[in-house]
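Lecture notes, part 5. Sequence design as translation. It can be helpful to think of inverse folding as translation between two languages: the language of shapes and the language of residues. The source text, in structure tokens, appears below.
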């Protein structure tokens, strides 16, 4: 009977630790998603993807010819002719933008539209380029990921990260209460962080390796798309490296404290001198 509370405490420690590791792993997935779906990062990725999927360099001469014959009244806008995403140009832009400047303006506008409106921005467009991407492939994973890098999804990722952060704090507090010794608390917390970080780090590295490997046999069209995934994979790799390093530091501090606490006294206490009669 006297051992039952101890067994329950040990069981609760393992349960809380396992739950905390799972929540931390999910939390850092969402943190990476928040970073990748932020406006700056997402529009940069969309810009590169739009350039590849639309083959804008091939379309640009025809767009310029169409603009030469387009008369836009002052104060009105017109969609870029022959371009699958309805980027709007002002009257002044249709007259002055050509070459590299026109290319930059189209890509910036298209990336912003895709980020704000999602893949609906491609509605009615010629998706022959996208149709060449196999859904079950590294390139298909990149294309699917781009569909998640939108303003609305970013808000959902932020809300989910906040919620999981609160849950993680509650579980961490529960783990600290379940483990009585302060040094062992640090060891337990560090071990949980490592358990959440290292497998996730391995998965992120494997994903980046898969993208790089797929590039070797891909045509230039798919290779450019995969390059977006290669760059994006650095974000979770960096996050999980930081998480794993933090876990090792916390666990090491706890182990060091336990070792120092368990060391015998350096100088033994000398016996009292006998009192002379």
């Amino acid at each position: 009977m006297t051992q039952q509370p101890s067994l329950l405490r040990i069981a609760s420690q393992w349960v809380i630790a396992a739950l905390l590791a799972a929540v931390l792993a999910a939390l850092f997935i969402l943190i990476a998603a928040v970073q990748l779906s932020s406006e700056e990062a997402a529009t940069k990725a969309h810009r590169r993807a739009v350039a590849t999927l639309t083959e804008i360099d091939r379309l640009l001469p025809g767009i310029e010819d169409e603009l030469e014959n387009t008369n836009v009244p002052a104060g009105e806008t017109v969609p870029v002719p022959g371009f699958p995403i309805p980027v709007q140009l002002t009257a002044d832009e249709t007259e002055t933008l050509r070459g590299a400047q026109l290319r930059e303006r189209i890509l910036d506008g298209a990336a912003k539209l895709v980020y704000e409106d999602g893949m609906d921005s491609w509605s009615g467009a010629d998706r022959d380029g996208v149709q060449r991407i196999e859904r079950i492939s590294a390139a298909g994973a990149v294309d699917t990921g781009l569909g998640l890098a939108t303003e609305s999804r970013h808000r959902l990722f932020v809300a989910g990260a906040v919620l999981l952060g609160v849950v993680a704090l509650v579980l961490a507090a529960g783990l600290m209460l379940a483990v009585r010794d302060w040094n062992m608390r640090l060891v337990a917390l560090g071990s949980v962080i490592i358990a959440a970080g290292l497998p996730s780090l391995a998965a992120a590295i494997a994903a980046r390796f898969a993208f790089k490997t797929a590039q070797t046999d891909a045509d230039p069209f798919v290779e450019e798309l995969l390059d977006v995934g290669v760059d994006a994979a650095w974000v979770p790799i960096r996050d999980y490296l930081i998480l794993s390093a933090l876990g090792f530091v916390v666990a090491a501090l706890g182990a060091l404290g336990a070792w120092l606490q368990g060391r015998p006294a350096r100088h033994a206490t000398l016996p009292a001198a006998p009192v002379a009669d």
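The translated text above is only one of many valid answers, since several sequences can fold into similar shapes. The longest strand covers residues 77-79.
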